[in-house]
Structure formats: structure tokens, C-alpha cells
Amino acid sequence: MSPQCGFSRAVVQVLDIHGVPREKMQTYNVLEDAELRSGIKEYSDWPTVPQIYLNGEFVGGCDILLGMHQSGELEDVLEKNQIIPPVAPSPTAAATA
Asked: What domain of life does the UniProt record list for this protein's source (predicted)?
């Protein structure tokens, strides 16, 4: 089921673009649970949702993730955290290097 929140939906779409398997994503509907919604904001000291964690470490919200995606940093972080396999260089890139 797709998230109701547009920002959360954008995060899931970006992670899909990078090939993050759904079984490696844990999502929670904080719109249905006010205690969880306020608790997660307090826990991370971050005022908005969604909140993205990689291997238990807080990364940021939708805007941070989108910036990381646009800069190319997200793919590196996902690979380093073994969430996605490293992308092999294309043969043409290797030949021109």
C-alpha cells in the first residue's frame, strides 16, 4: 500500500528508483498513531515526517533524501550500508577511463 502522505510517497519512490527492496524498508503509518508521531519527532529531534533511518541512524526527512538523490550521495550511502549492491561501472565508462 502506498503512503497517504505525499512526502512519504516521494521517499518510497526515490528508494524504489535506487532498487531498495521492499523487505529492507520498514514503514509505519504515523497518521494513524498520534503517540508514535509525536514520539518519533521527539526521539530524532526532527519536527517533520517522514523520517529516514539507515541501519538505525537518522538521515533526515524527505528534503534531505531528495537532495542526496539529486547529488548522487544517496546511491553511495545505500551501497555503503549494504542496502543495495554496488553498481558495476559500464564497459564504455571503463574503456574511456
From this structure: Eukaryota
Query: What is the DSSP code (8-state) at residue 7?
Result: H
Q: d(Cα 15, Cα 74) in Å, to the nearest integer?
A: 9
Question: Helices marked H in the chain — which ranges?
Answer: 6-17, 34-44, 62-71, 73-80, 91-96
Residue 60 CA to residue 52 CA, distance in Å, equals 6
pLDDT tens sequence across 35-82: 999 999 999 999 999 999 999 999 999 999 999 999 999 999 999 999
Question: Over the chain, what is the mean pLDDT?
Answer: 90
62 assigned binding-site residue: no
Q: Is the pLDDT of residue 88 over 80?
A: no
Cβ-proximal residues to 25 (8 Å cutoff; 6+ apart), any chain: 12, 15
Domains of the chain: 6-96 (3.40.30.10)
